[in-house]
Amino acid sequence: MAEVSFLEKTFKLNKHGTNVKTEIMAGVTTFMTMSYILAVNPGILSEAGMDYGAVFSATVIASVVAMVLMAFYANLPFGLSAGMGLNAFFTYTVVGQMGHSWQFALTAVFLEGIIFMLLSLVGVREAIFNSIPTTLKKAVSVGIGLFIAEIGLLNAKIVVKAEPALALGNLKSLEAFIFFFALVIMIVLTAKKVKGALLWGILVSTVLSLILGVTHLPDTNIVSLPPSIAPVAFKLDFSNIFSLEMFSVLFSFLFVDIFDTLGTLTGVATKAKMLDENGNLPEASKALMSDAVGTTVGALLGTSTITTFVESSSGVAEGGRTGLTALATAGCFVIAAFFFPVFSIIPPAATSAALVTVGLFMLSTVVEINFEDITEAFPAFMTILMMPLSYSIAEGIAFGMMSFAAIKLLTGKGKEVSWVIYVLAIIFFVRYLI
């Protein structure tokens, strides 16, 4: 078929050991596990004073732009959208605690995107990615697995935030029942090697949630035009661009975004066995450019930082290996813009079960870590440990790099460490001190 040959020529499906059906199924699965962002991001940014509907549309457009670039430019199976944590920093810290306007915060995001585009062009971000030791790359994959499993358990309220740490939630609730029902379906179908196991689990548990009354069919028109972006688009405020406050906010956005993205790319690519013999990701610079452009476009249109989503691992787990997966995910975002009331019926418990299942899949690389060498094992352990405990991919990487540099240097193996890692470790250490 002509369309299939076009897809083969564009995405090199045979070379990557995949096919159109697998890639589209993977893309839909990625969308199903990250679709919550279309409800959550507008909700968070609306608390900063932004228009909910306008942010929803801006998030869709920026996500699609970034994923189309990821598909055709990088040919990688990663989904992108407004990053969780970064949107919370935008609303609750920059606007809430610091007292800046949301226009000020959007300007910081815009500048961040421009800087990242420049860093990607000269290869700085790719150099950082390539400098991460193979041991830490494998540990990042494991740490992200635990991190997204934690997100899934929290979203489903199987565990809840408590003092001093976490505690079990209400396991007798219907939501908990749907979560475990979906989880069992996904595990059983995976064991039977059924393609699209995660997607089927989400769909079946959504039907169950409708039957049990946990979710309901929308009582409004299921098809409508997306809200206008006019209330939030092109509202940048450059009046404080050279202030200390702008520098502080911009640095924070830069730090979290660069290491969240690098961590996600490392973890998902390691799990998908997409790294080359040197432990590097081919086309990493193009992937990083895609999220930089997405961030810049998103800020102009009215949404927070666009970043590569760790939920991309759900699509990779379903066999997604090329940009066709990202393109399919982008297509789902476009559809969601017109059918948002329908997508809103998917219960958090269903997508949460998918995250926990993917967390399990991502633990497999732990057996490839050399635990016989304590100078390799300890940094890996710190990386894995700190991601779920600090609730941050970036912080896990920071602790991993600091411990790797310190242990290697103090045990006479300092030459095994790249100078880039030493520089980053010092930066992280100084950051925590001040």
Report on the architecture of this protein.
With 434 residues, the protein is mainly α. The protein has two domains: 10-138 and 196-204 and 211-341, no CATH class; 370-433, no CATH class. 67% of the residues lie in helices and 3% in strands. It is built from 19 helices and four strands. The chain has helices at 2-11, 20-34, 37-46, 52-74, 86-97, 102-121, 124-131, 134-155, 174-191, 197-212, 244-271, 284-301, 312-317, 323-338, 340-343, 348-362, 374-390, 393-410, 419-433; strands at 80-82, 159-161, 166-168, 306-308. The chain has a two-stranded antiparallel ribbon with strand order 1-4. Strand 2 and strand 3 (166-168) form a beta hairpin. Helix 3 (37-46) runs parallel beside helix 5 (86-97) and helix 10 runs antiparallel to helix 16. The chain is globular and about 65 Å long. The protein starts with a helix and ends with a helix.
Task: Produce the secondary structure layout.
Blueprint: H1 2-11, H2 20-34, H3 37-46, H4 52-74, E1 80-82, H5 86-97, H6 102-121, H7 124-131, H8 134-155, E2 159-161, E3 166-168, H9 174-191, H10 197-212, H11 244-271, H12 284-301, E4 306-308, H13 312-317, H14 323-338, H15 340-343, H16 348-362, H17 374-390, H18 393-410, H19 419-433
Antiparallel strand pairs: 1-4, 2-3
GO molecular function, one term: purine nucleobase transmembrane transporter activity
InterPro entries: Azg-like, Azg-like_bact_archaea, NCS2
Family: Belongs to the nucleobase:cation symporter-2 (NCS2) (TC 2.A.40) family. Azg-like subfamily.
